[in-house]
Design brief:
One of its GO terms (molecular function) is oxidoreductase activity. The protein is of the alpha/beta class and 331 residues long. 35% of the residues lie in helices and 27% in strands. The protein has 9 helices and 15 strands. A 9-stranded mixed sheet has the order 14-13-12-11-7-10-9-8-15. The protein has a 6-stranded parallel sheet with strand order 3-2-1-4-5-6, sandwiched between helices. Helix 4 links the parallel strand 4 and strand 5. Helix 1 crosses helix 8, helix 4 runs parallel beside helix 5 and helix 5 runs antiparallel to helix 9. The relative contact order is 0.15.
């Protein structure tokens, strides 16, 4: 098998505009089928993106023996059901974030994954962009001294109040949608897990989903971090790492692919008053697809493995628990 043969469950926008084209740009994957409960949508998307086969149900696609792996961009509350269904059909699974609604859901998914010996990964694509490795390198080299603080933000104003992102039943909310990136980035860049979480949120009185959430992750080595996310604020997607001798700011932390040449900007400010701007380019969606396919085709370890997924879900669980109880949650 020279290329991984992908099927896609649903015609969701993230798949149509980002992930499917990224797989098609990859050197080790091809999209061979797409399924939708609306046959017309499946057919239109297939024509638009050059996908050879369509199905009018997810089950039919999973029954196709010529599909090796599936990408699942369904609503959050549907991830568990269809990941388990796919695993039981021996399909490897790349699933959109958040991979589950709760840590207990993830446990069920991991059980199915291990039982069926399939590769399973959560689609946190941002981490594959080379700008983050550059940040880690700068921190390791002591460019900003000892790290004391980190903050991460990801927000946008959601005008359409009927959007699926605001459906409590389908796992909506700002933290599930984009805020989870901030938690991931803090843990990813610092390379460690928090010991406690505190979060505060504004929940929509009728929709019962978080519209804005902010909070802190504290670490045993004394590093303090903060995160914020919102559907009610202007677009923001950045993080800053502050040390004893300077700071590093990443201005397009999560969607540098929207910039010219898919380049991220890293601003290094030092205590001597100097500032350096570093550019790092990379196709994060394609790099993610290639990493996953390499794991399946060549039995290579995933860059983002099952343990890392579990750790992310534990923190996300704790953040929601803290926001509802109004108290610190220890991990």
């Amino acid at each position: 098998m020279s290329k991984l043969r992908w099927g896609v469950l649903s015609t969701a926008q993230i798949g149509r505009t980002q992930v499917i084209p990224a797989i098609q740009r990859s050197n080790n994957g091809e999209v061979v089928a797409i399924a939708s409960r609306n046959q017309q949508k499946a057919d239109e998307t297939a024509i638009e993106l050059g996908i050879p086969k369509t199905y009018d149900s997810y089950d039919s696609l999973l029954d196709d023996p010529n599909i090796d792996a599936v990408y699942i961009p369904l609503p959050n509350a549907m991830h568990k059901e269809w990941m388990i269904q796919a695993a039981n059909k021996k399909k490897h699974v790349l699933c959109e974030k958040p991979v589950a609604i709760t840590n207990s859901e993830l446990d069920e998914m991991l059980t199915a994954c291990k039982k069926n010996n399939v590769v399973f990964m959560e689609a946190f694509m941002y981490q594959f962009h080379p700008q983050h490795q550059k940040v880690k390198q700068l921190i390791k080299e002591g460019v900003i001294g000892d790290v004391a603080f980190m903050r991460a933000s990801f927000s946008f104003y959601l005008e359409d109040r009927s959007n699926i992102r605001l459906s409590n039943e389908l796992g909506g909310g700002a933290m599930f949608d984009v805020g989870c990136y901030t938690l991931h980035a803090i843990r990813n860049i610092l390379g460690q897990e928090p010991s406690s979480v505190y979060a505060s949120a504004n929940y929509h009185p009728k929709l019962k989903v978080d519209m804005t959430m902010t909070g802190t992750l504290n670490f045993d080595n004394g590093i303090v971090t903060s995160f914020d996310t919102s559907f009610d604020s202007v677009s923001r997607e950045s993080y800053e790492v502050v040390g004893s001798k300077g700071s590093i700011t990443v201005t397009s932390a999560f969607r540098p692919d929207t910039n010219e040449d898919m380049a991220g900007e890293i601003i290094v400010s030092k205590d001597d008053g100097t500032t350096e701007v570093v550019k790092e380019a990379g196709d994060q969606y394609t790099l993610m697809a290639e990493d996953f396919a390499d794991a399946v085709l060549n039995n290579q370890p995933l860059t983002y493995d099952l343990t890392a997924m579990q750790n992310q879900m534990k923190v996300l669980d704790a953040v929601y628990e803290s926001s509802k109880k109004g108290e610190v949650v220890k991990l």
